[in-house]
């Protein structure tokens, strides 16, 4: 009886030391900014003042087996807190290695490959998503980029300037897409400095069992201080 109790105490003490070791081994950081803003639509309307309220908590480390782990939480008292009753905004956890790439799970705030590639132009209001509407359909819907809660995203290592990406959206409800996945490739040729080629293709379930295939492509070239895409 006494021996069993000692075993339990020993296991509890070991578990506590492992947790403490993991916490101390990780690199923690806290970032934010001091800012305020004012909006005034018309001189006859009172100004609206607001203060920045976002803080990011990040941690990263490497396990004994060589797997890189990173986690990020954003505390935001803005619209998200009012809508959901929670102060958490963007948050994610990622794991991977230099040789195998990185797999990220976005609890909130992630972007699919299509969403990452549909607005790579270098200046505001030149992105494809800023076209407005096409035949009464918003440009974002035409492109097909999706970013929802609980989404997986994978980024491969770069092989001779070629990087592969993939995303899978797990969300399923009456207000979001029941199924979405996409893949893409980004090519930065080593022989042409400043050139980047993008291509992504995806498939989404729009309603019931109806599925739509989407794709996007882009070319961007940077020379000195000038970037054209």
In words, what does this structure look like?
The chain is built from four helices and 15 strands. The chain is of the alpha+beta class. The protein folds into two domains: 52-108; 110-229, no CATH class. The strands form three sheets. It has an eleven-stranded antiparallel β-sheet with strand order 1-4-5-6-7-10-11-12-13-14-15. It has a two-stranded antiparallel sheet with strand order 2-3. It has a two-stranded antiparallel sheet with strand order 8-9. It starts with a helix and ends with a strand.
Strand-helix topology:
Elements: H1 2-25, E1 27-32, E2 36-39, E3 48-51, E4 54-62, E5 68-76, H2 79-84, E6 88-97, E7 101-108, H3 113-117, E8 133-134, E9 137-138, H4 139-143, E10 151-155, E11 162-169, E12 180-187, E13 195-207, E14 210-223, E15 226-228
Antiparallel strand pairs: 1-4, 2-3, 4-5, 5-6, 6-7, 7-10, 8-9, 10-11, 11-12, 12-13, 13-14, 14-15
Number of strands: 15
Global geometry: globular
The computed structural class is: alpha+beta
Rounded to the nearest angstrom, the distance between the terminal CA atoms is 74 Å
Order of helices and strands: HEEEEEHEEHEEHEEEEEE
Q: What is the count of structural domains?
A: 2
Provide mean pLDDT, rounded. Answer: 76
Strand order of the largest sheet: 1-4-5-6-7-10-11-12-13-14-15
Poorly predicted ranges: 5-24
């Amino acid at each position: 009886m006494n021996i069993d109790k000692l075993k339990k105490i020993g296991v509890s003490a070991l578990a506590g030391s492992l947790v403490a070791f993991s916490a101390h081994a990780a690199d923690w950081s806290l970032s934010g900014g001091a800012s305020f803003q004012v909006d005034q639509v018309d001189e006859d309307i009172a100004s609206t003042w607001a203060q920045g309220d976002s803080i990011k908590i990040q941690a990263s480390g490497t396990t004994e087996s060589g797997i890189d782990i990173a986690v990020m939480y954003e505390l935001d008292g803005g619209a998200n807190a009012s809508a959901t009753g929670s102060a958490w905004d963007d948050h994610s956890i990622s794991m991977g290695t230099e040789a195998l790439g990185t797999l990220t799970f976005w609890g909130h705030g992630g972007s699919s490959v299509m969403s990452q590639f549909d607005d790579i132009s270098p200046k505001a209001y030149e992105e494809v998503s800023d076209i407005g509407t096409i035949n009464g359909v918003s440009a974002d819907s035409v492109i097909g980029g999706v970013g929802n809660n609980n989404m997986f995203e994978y980024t491969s290592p770069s092989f001779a300037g070629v990087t592969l990406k993939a995303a899978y959206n797990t969300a399923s409800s009456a207000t979001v897409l029941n199924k979405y996945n996409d893949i893409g490739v980004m090519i930065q040729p080593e022989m042409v400095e400043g050139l980047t080629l993008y291509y992504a293709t995806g498939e989404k379930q729009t309603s019931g069992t109806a599925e739509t295939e989407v794709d996007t492509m882009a070319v961007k070239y940077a020379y000195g201080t000038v970037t054209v895409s």
